[in-house]
């Protein structure tokens, strides 16, 4: 049976997946505000696919129970912060995207905190 922290971690990962699915849908539908199809580093659709895949893999691996799950959880958080990080406060469309930005940041930071606590607890146990 999963612990309460694991359920919270899974909820954070699920929130990130849903946010990224909605952004991918907005991109395909071209409904405002939608992310640009490409940026200077990569195309957005493959990036969103990667971020959702890493988050889903973290859920399957056990986000707090295994080393792999912890690494994937941190990876999913960092990747999500590329989309929803503090740099978005300076985005020209911030007034349109702020709910997703805040939700993404809360989920990512909470997940990082939960992984940090889990790792610390394992080292002191």
Please provide a brief summary of the model:
With 125 residues, the chain is an all-alpha fold. The chain has 4 helices and no strands.
Q: Layout of SSEs?
A:
Blueprint: H1 4-29, H2 44-61, H3 67-84, H4 94-124
Helix pairs in contact: 1-2, 1-3, 1-4, 2-3, 3-4
N/C terminus separation: 20 Å
Please write the string of helix (H) and strand (E) elements: HHHH
Shape: elongated
| Mean pLDDT score | 92
The biggest beta sheet is recorded as:
none
Instruction: Round the Cα radius of gyration to an integer and report it.
Output: 15 Å
Beta-strand content estimate: under 5%
User: How many strands appear in the DSSP assignment?
Assistant: 0
- The helix content is over 70%
Query: Which residues form runs of ≥5 with pLDDT under 50?
Result: none
Number of domains: 1
Classify the secondary structure makeup into a structural class.
mainly alpha
Number of continuous helical runs? 4
Structural features, described:
The chain is an all-alpha fold and 125 residues long. It has one domain. It is 74% helix and 0% strand. It has four helices and no strands. Helix 1 (4-29) packs antiparallel against helix 2 (44-61). It is elongated, with a radius of gyration of 15 Å. The relative contact order is 0.17.
